[in-house]
Amino acid sequence: MLLSYMLEHKTNQEKVVMKIKHLEASLNSGRKLFRLGNMVHAIVAARQATQLPHLVPRFCLTVSNLSRALYFVCDTVLWVKSVGLLSDIKKKKWGNWATKCYYYSLMINLAEDLYELCWRMEQAARMGKPKEDSSPCGPQFQSLVSLATGGLQPFLLLLCKTLRKHPPLLLDTVKNLCDLSSPLDRLGICKSNPGVIGLCGLISSIVGILTVARPHLRLKH
Known about the structure:
- With 221 residues, the chain is mainly alpha-helical.
- Helices cover 78% and strands 0% of the residues.
- The protein has eight helices and no strands.
């Protein structure tokens, strides 16, 4: 009787394990389908970015969203390999391509953040100056350059003031910087420990949740 009970108990455990594995596989498939939706969203976002009036944001956002779409393509190929639909896919090569696409997307996003930050700082630097001091034929960031060469403290003061007045820009920059830690480590550009990567991921997730809960904190172009 004891042996029969143990065998029955073992069978029940195996059934539970099989159900958990099946549920995990279903969730994983759903996650991949969600990523396919993200790929379509990235392509649509790239198309919309081509309609932006200013050259730098138009270029950066178009290329960034295309890079994101390529990342999701590579990620889908890796999923096809993991479920056994195609066995001759080189996992390491596709994983490396996915990481590079993600890395390029983040770098271009940061470049766009930097451009907008410089533009906001330039606008703030021009405020309060007499009109005759401004040169309409001069460089776009003339006031900002003159402020930067005038001393570090006024420049940092203007930087902090600008970021404080534009929380969406601050949050987007922080999120992109935090997301960058993982591809930098995977590509061997800047090695880091799992604790730092985990902390950056946590901060990025908190910022993402915050921008979803408060849409006015999401950076708009």
